[in-house]
Specification:
mainly alpha
Length: 485
């Protein structure tokens, strides 16, 4: 039996906070689209894949994406076995709490929440930049990027008032358009140039060439987001079936899409792809679109970058709100944040602090006269990505430990998440060691941001220890809501 939540007037009360998410409203396809939207495939292809070509292993980038996909797939084999036991909107939070203890769980939950909010802020910065650039092209030069960002935040607030399946349909439309556009470019390249030499492009000597570490950073950061399938378990129809399906579908689509697209771009540019992408990484993909699809194709791609960024902002906002909800339901945050709308189960209250943080961050950067793309996006993208990669690594090692607690033994399936965890740990270490390449800046302040993740984990640890001493009833609930016995 799953725990049911009961009413509470505050986090210090003996009973959990009242709040139930809408059950049975999301199918496998809905969840897959929501997770893929967070991955923002259009933004990845346009913004970071060219940098990987330029600074990394060049022609070996396609193979590097394949290796990152293998690591994620190995992780997922154990991950989906664990999920039926933990149907909690704070996925990492509950898994770590049930495996390594409540103190570690609460520390991990704050790292996850801050990482998702940071990525939401970063993507919002990029979105506001693209929207404002479009408005300026249309003659609306007076619109400041901060105004565009606040308008998007207002839309997020409105959408959070509706049931989650409404959001899922919006994300499906946006995602479908961007994927079709990129695949059209890939197909146009291969039809014009042929299929190249797969044996050469995926040869170990090419993939393992100098620069592999740099490309691995971007490859691992590109697949972050698939783990969010677990966040929507409580709102899923038949979660024991729909969540594994959505997880594998998301991994398959993300990885195959990136590998195929990188392959097509390599075919188009040949051995000189590193130099071609390095000339102007921001315009590399648009140049290919102009050459193979014409000016109209380039214009469509430019518009879809905006829809891709909006879909990612919306998905990251939903992830953040559900972490706030899960923490409030267990008593770590104020109980009123766990109250959902009676009519549709939307966690509207949980989204309000996220809206507040987004508004404050945008306002501070705008008032300081900073660039949304070069300052806001670069500062927070690497920060959020490193935080989630670290949690993925911890979770990968937590999966076999958790399953052993439930079954009394390590099964053969435990070997897969261990292997995936080792690869994820390597990616995390590479990301931290080469952090300036993720941020694209020489700023010492920005490049030391990962250290803040340790401070955030420390805050969660301190709160958990305080709760254990002063409020043992609340401490006992950490990570327990919706956990199967």
């Amino acid at each position: 039996m799953h725990e049911r939540t009961r009413s509470s007037s505050g986090p210090a009360d003996d009973q959990p906070a009242k709040g139930v998410l809408a059950e049975g409203v999301l199918g496998s396809v809905d969840i897959t689209f929501m997770v893929l939207a967070v991955a923002a495939p259009m933004a990845i292809v346009v913004a970071t894949m060219p940098i990987s070509f330029a600074l990394g292993n060049g022609m070996g980038v396609a193979g590097t994406y394949a290796l990152s996909g293998l690591a994620i797939a190995l992780f997922a084999i154990g991950y989906v076995r664990l999920l039926p036991h933990i149907r909690n909107a704070g996925a990492f939070y509950a898994i770590i709490a049930q495996t390594f203890g409540r103190v570690a769980g609460l520390a991990g939950s704050y790292v996850a929440l801050v990482s998702y909010v940071a990525l939401c802020c970063a993507t919002l910065g990029a979105l506001s930049y693209f929207v404002t650039s479009l408005l300026h092209m249309l003659g609306l030069d007076f619109v400041h990027w901060g105004v565009s960002a606040l308008a998007v935040i207002a839309i997020l607030t409105l959408l959070s008032y509706f049931r989650i399946d409404f959001t899922a349909k919006l994300l499906a439309i946006a995602l479908g358009a961007e994927v079709i556009a990129i695949l059209a470019l890939d197909a146009a390249i291969l039809l014009a140039e042929g299929f190249g030499s797969p044996g050469r492009i995926f040869a170990p000597s090419v993939v393992l060439a100098p620069g592999l570490g740099v490309s691995a950073i971007y490859a691992f950061n590109s697949v972050i987001g698939f783990e969010a399938t677990a966040i929507y378990q409580e709102e899923a129809r038949d979660p024991e079936v729909s969540i594994p399906r959505a997880t594998y579908a998301a991994i398959g689509v993300i990885c195959l899409f990136y590998v195929f697209t990188a392959y097509a771009f390599i075919v188009a540019s040949g051995p000189g792809i590193a130099a071609a992408a390095g000339k102007d990484p921001g315009q590399f993909v648009f140049g290919l679109a102009r050459h193979y699809l014409g000016r109209q194709g380039e214009a469509i791609l430019s518009l879809l970058v905006i829809s891709s960024a909006f879909a990612a902002v919306l998905g990251l906002f939903n992830n953040s709100a559900r972490y706030v909800f899960a923490l409030a339901r267990d008593g770590a945050l104020p109980a009123r944040l766990a109250r959902t709308r009676p009519i549709n189960g939307a966690p509207f209250n949980a989204g309000l602090p996220v809206i507040l943080v987004l508004s404050v961050v945008i306002s501070l950067f705008a008032l300081a006269g900073l660039d949304p793309l070069l300052s806001l996006t670069t500062a927070l993208t690497g920060f959020g990505s490193v935080g989630l990669m670290a949690l993925l690594t911890i979770t990968a090692f937590a999966v076999p430990v958790f399953l052993r607690k439930r079954t009394g033994r390590f099964g053969p399936v435990s070997l897969f998440p261990f292997a995936g965890g080792a690869m994820l740990a390597t990616g995390t270490i590479l990301s931290v060691a080469n952090y300036p390449l993720l941020t694209g800046t020489d700023s010492t302040l920005i490049n030391r941001l990962p250290a803040l993740l340790l401070a955030i984990a420390g805050i969660g640890t301190a709160q958990a220890l305080l709760l254990r001493r002063r409020r043992p009833d609340v401490f006992a609930r950490i990570g327990l809501s919706q956990v199967a016995g």
